Amino acid sequence: MKKFKKVSSSIVVVLIISIIAAGMVWSVSATRKVDATANDNIKIYYDGNLKAFTETDGSKISPVIIGGRTYLPLRAVADLVGLGVEWVSDTQSIKLTSNNSGIPYKDNTPVQTQPSASTAPSTTAPVSSTPAPVNSSKSAGTLEDPIKLGETFSWSATEKYINTTASADYTCTVKKVEPITYEEVTKLGFKVTSDKDKIEYAMITLDMSVSNAKITSGDAYLHLPFMRYVSGSKTPSGASIIGGTDYGFEGSLKKAAENVNKDSQGFLKKIKAGEVHNYKYEGKVILPLAKGQENYLWLTKDSSLEYSVRHAFFKLK
């Protein structure tokens, strides 16, 4: 029996979903007013990584406090952990589905590691002899100046990671953009949107490198503090589609990050305070796109920054 990942022990998912139409008339006996307070300071971690929830227009979703409990929109949490959400207006019901047995739900069991072997101080993957051109403009990566397809974007980030601080230098290149059909996405084990007139999908190949990676205290599985996540796609006007599937299939970006950080016996390596690591990997992301429009890949580059500047955008054509 599958176990659903706890996003946080303090998070209670409330039935507030974006697919409920505005102005829906509810039974008087089933509704009541509550006092609620939005708290922008609450941080949500998933698999040890700080997550940012946003509306389709890119605006921030803040956790809400009601009666001492913390609530998040059901749609945002369901998208994060790979659940299907359906609103049935006739019966005023919300249906959650696990989509497909191929989706990798995780429990709290620690990943197996080699008990006695120490972590090597450096891990370096082969580097291409023909590096992509680098965009070093100060405005590079913004909606006004997105990174061109095939160009490499570099930046540095220092972020809180659980009970430590992680810092590294990063580079990212969108190497390939391939169309992928609804049927192909379904075969990989993922549910697709039913709005085929507005949404299409692409398989994006990213080349990532991490250098000077270090933490200030404790230890952690090497790939986790430095994993960069695809938030979704945006159009030049700023319209956004939240979600990019970078896990759960062979060749995915997250799987590639794990594979390059395994030792010769197949155990995941750990990084300890005082060590410096370097590594490189290439992986794929299934990305929803606004049909008939120009789209940019939307990557979270540094979660410690203000929301308006924490992302980088990459052209897909």
From TrEMBL:
Residues 104-143 are annotated as: Disordered. It holds the Pfam family Cu_amine_oxidN1. InterPro entries: Cu_amine_oxidase-like_N, Mao_N_sf. Residues 60-105 form the Copper amine oxidase-like N-terminal domain. Residues 112-134 have a biased composition (Low complexity). It comes from the Bacteria. This is Copper amine oxidase-like domain-containing protein.
